[in-house]
Design goal:
The protein has 673 residues and is of the alpha+beta class. It contains 20 helices and 10 strands. The chain has 4 domains: 167 residues; 194 residues, no CATH class; 115 residues, no CATH class; 102 residues, no CATH class. Helix 11 packs antiparallel against helix 12 and helix 14 runs parallel beside helix 16.
């Protein structure tokens, strides 16, 4: 009897021609004006989703039933792994993560053709073609280069097991969110390409794409935050962001996607930045593919990346083809992309959004250059140089400061032309709050210039957001006679896009304050202690009690027992570990001891580096950290999700966007629909 994985193998092979059919059937249906053919293309999208769901289910079944005859299962799991990690091993390696990418794209594509079928009917043939074109690429790779259901010529008794770094609760959320974040930028790209291919280049595609872009922005942003949290509590270097090439690769499409979300508001409102918006949609998708390429090819050294494999050239070729074709189409349509209006004043909201975009793109380019420079250096000079955090911090710091300041100014500016007098009056309270907050921080001992500048910008943005909420609440209380809490709730409910965006701005403020506190005021010390000895770090005294050893079915654990005191009182018990997993003994992993102490909002962070047996017991080498304000980053992540959820939530009575469509084009659109 054939194993169930053979059914999944067959479904994976069948999905490829179905996806290829949808690529051709969609545009052909438009050309021959055949609605049945267009419906069959839509059904092809749904069929690909069903087939890849079957493939994914058979792979999960192979993991759960320990079918080590499947090569990927033998490489990524073992019999003694807990069930939750057996299931998450699905995307723990290269082949499985590519299947996850393709599967989630098929599900999202199905959601697009179902939810946007009516609102974007004239664009849908090309949307289907682009979505299934990307799907076809991944299916080619999965079928011919990295098949997750490939069987071994024999069946091992047990598998190697999952990489120990992945045996962590973060595995449940960070990889699937990050991969889905990369994948979800395919939808805005598909709508942008559909607009270019069809010639329907007015605001129609933007109205449909905004929510899909916001969804992608949310998923990728959540993936980045969860990755920072994972790095903080697993990798054991005392931080949450190290400007690693794979971290950079995930950050870049989020930055350009953020620029896209802001600049499409200018096109919706003023009919401007048309070429720029299409370029951002193309760039964001290309950077998402580049991020997948960096992780899967192994061409850049990273704690996240896979080993060098045959998959790299395929991704590079696909990326090059995508960029060449997309940019050629954009240049071809340039005559139809003239802006309807011009900038009326340098002091206007659209100008602020344009500057915001330029800063975000400049930051993206700086990160991109730092990421690829080692490759260029090796190719040109045969010397592989590294670009470390000092470069990124020096370049990113001023740009992020400027972005924060602009984030505070832009909401107070009017469209078209802002009065300098009105703007100055609006800015006085946020400016006063920012100066007061900075002075208080200086009096509290935060005397580093960079930290004070960051605090000034963060408080300024928070005060601007507070002012906007206060104004809206005041108007509702005056006109509707509502209590403050009711006015706030209804204010947000009736303009979710605007006030959800402000809540996201508050999230950025919290994250910025967390980064400032932990970057400028971190304290650390490396010590070696005998049992009973103490070490001082800042206001805390750390006492080492001894070392103990534990064993589980999977690993041998070495744990240090410590007590932390402040002013003679115990404030925390800390137990950092080193873990030696079966089949991975040469790659021990760290389990950091972290205790967040209130009200100071400081993390005591202790890493067990090593130990040595002596006559008076085991001496432990420890790396001690005091990390101020890191918890604000995780709080900011929760606020980010609240803000984006509010913005994504459908309005009870959606406002109708004004389309600036010439009469002839309206008649044409009506005839095509």
């Amino acid at each position: 009897m054939l194993p169930l994985s053979s059914l999944g193998f067959l479904a994976l092979q069948l999905a490829l021609p179905v996806a290829m059919y949808a690529v051709v059937a969609g545009p052909l249906a438009l050309r021959v004006r055949s609605m049945p053919l267009l419906l069959s293309a839509r059904n092809g999208v749904l069929a690909v989703a069903a087939l890849l769901t079957l493939v994914s289910a058979t792979l999960v079944h192979a993991f759960v039933t320990h079918d080590f005859g499947v090569r990927y299962v033998a490489e990524q799991s073992s019999r003694d792994m807990p069930l939750q990690y057996i299931i998450t091993a699905f995307y723990g390696g290269q082949a499985g993560s590519l299947l996850y990418w393709a599967w989630t794209l098929s599900l999202l594509s199905s959601a697009v053709v179902v939810l946007s079928w009516r609102s974007a009917r004239p664009l849908m043939p090309y949307v289907i073609a682009v979505l299934m074109g990307v799907e076809t690429f991944f299916l080619v790779v999965l079928n011919f280069v990295s098949n997750p259901l490939e069987r071994l010529p024999f069946t091992p008794a047990d598998g190697r097991g999952l990489n120990p770094l992945l045996k962590d609760p973060g595995m449940f959320v960070h990889p699937p969110l990050l991969l889905a974040g990369y994948m979800s930028w395919t939808v805005p790209y598909a709508f942008a390409m559909a607009a270019l291919l069809s010639g329907r280049l007015w605001n129609e595609w933007l109205i449909v794409v905004r929510r899909w872009a916001l969804l992608a922005f949310t998923i990728l942003g959540a993936g980045l935050l969860m990755g920072s949290w994972w790095a903080y509590h697993v990798l054991g270097w005392g931080g949450y962001w190290g400007w690693d090439p794979v971290e950079n690769a995930a950050l870049m499409p989020w930055l350009t996607g953020t620029a896209f979300l802001h600049s499409i508001m200018v096109q919706e409102r003023r009919g401007m930045l048309k070429v720029w918006n299409l370029g951002l949609a193309i760039a964001t998708f290309a950077l998402a593919i580049f991020g997948t390429f960096v992780v899967r090819s192994g061409i850049l050294t990273s704690v996240h990346s896979f080993a060098v494999s045959a998959i790299g050239p395929f991704f590079f070729g696909f990326l090059a083809l995508t960029l060449i074709a997309s940019l050629a189409l954009l240049f071809y349509r340039l005559p139809l992309l003239r802006d309807e209006q011009e900038f009326d004043s340098l002091v206007s909201r659209e100008t602020a959004f344009l500057v915001n975009n330029l800063l975000l793109v400049a930051l993206t380019f700086a990160v991109f250059w730092g990421t690829i420079y080692p490759l260029i250096s090796e190719a040109v000079r045969n010397v592989k140089m590294t670009v470390g955090p000092p470069y990124y911090n020096q370049v990113a710091g001023p740009l992020l400061f400027a972005l924060l300041i602009l984030m505070g100014i832009a909401p107070l500016m009017a469209w078209r032309r802002a009065s300098l007098g009105n703007l100055a009056r609006s800015l006085r309270w946020p400016a006063a709050a920012a100066l007061s907050g900075t002075m208080l921080a200086a009096l509290a001992g935060a005397l580093k210039p960079g930290a004070l500048a960051g605090i000034l910008a963060a408080v300024f943005v928070a005060a601007t957001v507070a002012l906007e909420f206060w104004r809206g609440i005041a108007v509702r209380r005056r006109l509707a006679k509502e209590p403050a809490a009711v006015a706030l709730t209804r204010l947000v409910a009736r303009n979710r896009r605007r006030y959800g965006g402000y809540i996201v701005h508050l999230a950025i403020v919290l994250i910025a304050l967390g980064v400032i506190g932990s970057s400028f005021f971190q304290q650390q010390r490396e010590v070696t202690l005998a049992p009973g000895e103490r070490a001082q770090l800042g206001p805390y005294t750390i006492q080492y009690l001894g070392l103990s050893e534990y064993r589980t079915a999977e690993a041998r654990l070495i744990r240090a027992e410590l007590i932390a005191e402040r002013d003679g009182k115990e404030v925390a018990q800390l137990r950092p570990e080193r873990q030696f997993h079966k089949n991975w003994e040469q790659q021990p992993t760290t389990r950091v001891a972290i205790e967040t102490l209130l009200p100071r909002l400081e993390d005591l962070y202790v890493v067990l580096v090593g130990w040595e047996e002596t006559a008076d017991g085991y001496h432990a080498s420890l790396h001690l950290f005091v990390n101020p304000a890191v918890s604000l980053i995780w709080l900011g992540g929760l606020v980010f999700l609240v803000g984006t959820t509010i913005t994504l939530w459908p309005q009870p009575q959606p406002a109708r966007a004004v389309l600036r469509v010439p009469a002839a084009l309206r008649r044409m659109a009506g005839s095509e629909a």
